[in-house]
Amino acid sequence: MIIVSVDDHVVEPPDLFERHLPARYRDVAPKIVHKDDGTDVWQFLEFEVPNIGLNAVAGRPPEEYGIDPTSFDEIREGCFDIEKRILDMNANGVLGSLNFPSLPGFAGRLFAALEDKDAALALAQAYNDWHIDEWCGTYPGRFIPLAVPTIWDPETLAGEIHRVATKGCHAVTFPENPEPLGLPSLHSDHWDPFWKACSDEGTTVCMHIGSSSKLVTTAADAPIDVMIVLQPMNIVQAAADLIHSPVFKKFPDVTVALSEGGIGWIPYFLERLDHSYSVHKAWTGADFGSKMPSEVFMEHVVLCFISDAVGARLARDIGVDRITVEIDYPHSDTTWPRAPERLADDFAGTDLTDDEIDQMTHINAMRFFTYDPFRYRSREQCTVGALRAEAVGVDVEPRSKSKRPATSREGPVKISDLSPTA
């Protein structure tokens, strides 16, 4: 098996802005501050941006999971150290990885808080240069570069898409719904320069759950378990919004990846999509030309799953040529360090062929993200077994890393316990 993950995460190191930001903007750059309570936070303007514990729990026992802020010495070094990340990837048998940001938010909204948009652009470009040149560039062939967007201006964003494409980056993260961020929706023509740039450069747009800063919730006093269970519903909403937007009609070469949304829901969604269209198009004005909306959807959308046995059984019905896999390291849903075994279990309940499994585990990712690891390593060096052989001695057993007493709470954790920055 060869595994390429199209959804992992990086916890940015403290020296993030040291080498790529023009000197005149260094005073406004986020900086790490070690607080009296033992936590590390990024200080930016009047904001404190903590490393939320749940975002970096790989290698820790589940009893230490939580929403409380944490420090660099409490999380696994592979979260922020590129050398250790490669070792953790090897130990998990993972060849390639696309890494979403933590500090600026999935949609780069932190930088947008600056009134000085020249400074905001400098920060976004410095971030992208660090990510492409250092984080991904240190080990060629092991990472799929992912740009953060200059979300405040579509023309500037289009320029950044073109700029990073010259550096070999053909993926960008974008909110699954811009409206909660106070921005025009997917249904407006506001984003047309962005979509055109992505179309021109062959850049895949990655819409990650929670990238609109809004998750599906029911009530403030509901247990946080409700929100965790419903997280993929953000992607279902995004899928319905996207297919009924003008994006694919106006820009037929655009590709969108629905990151961390799973795939088991896809068959029913497509069935419902076509049913709704057939029944209601006469009065709603929906028009997909000679195609059904499910066909248009599957021509433009990349589907992603971490562990989804139901989705694996339905993979042929969905379309094995559109499915990719995710590891989600170092988040709480990660299958690290047993991703190959988890995938094997998912596929064991199917009659999928080796060729079909190869499409989902790496070939589709290579195609959709302009990624060719075989330029740097032979195919034989890219398998789970070969990579794990390079990770002899890497400790993958859960280890307690907590330096501080756990926050005492009465009863279950509730949605209202989340801080605004979480």
* Spatial strand order of the main sheet: 8-9-10-11-12
Question: What name is given to the CATH topology?
Answer: TIM Barrel
| Assembly state of the chains shown | single chain
CATH homologous superfamily designation: Metal-dependent hydrolases
SSE ordering: EEEEEHEHHEHEHEHHHEHHEHHEHHH
Number of strands: 12
The biggest beta sheet reads: 5 strands, parallel
Rg, rounded, reads 21 Å
The 3D shape can be described as globular
Mean pLDDT rating: 93
Describe the structure.
The protein is an alpha/beta fold and 422 residues long. The chain has a single domain, classed as Alpha-Beta Barrel (TIM Barrel). The chain contains 15 helices and 12 strands. The protein has helices at 82-91, 109-112, 117-136, 154-165, 192-201, 224-230, 233-243, 247-250, 266-284, 293-300, 309-313, 315-318, 339-348, 354-368, 384-389; strands at residues 3-9, 31-34, 40-44, 47-52, 69-70, 94-100, 143-144, 171-173, 204-208, 256-259, 301-305, 323-325. The strands form 3 sheets. Strands 8-9-10-11-12 form a 5-stranded parallel beta sheet. The chain has a 4-stranded antiparallel beta sheet with strand order 2-3-4-5, with no helix packed on it. Helix 4 packs parallel to helix 5 (192-201). The longest helix has 20 residues, at 117-136. It is globular. The model has no long low-confidence stretch (mean pLDDT 93).
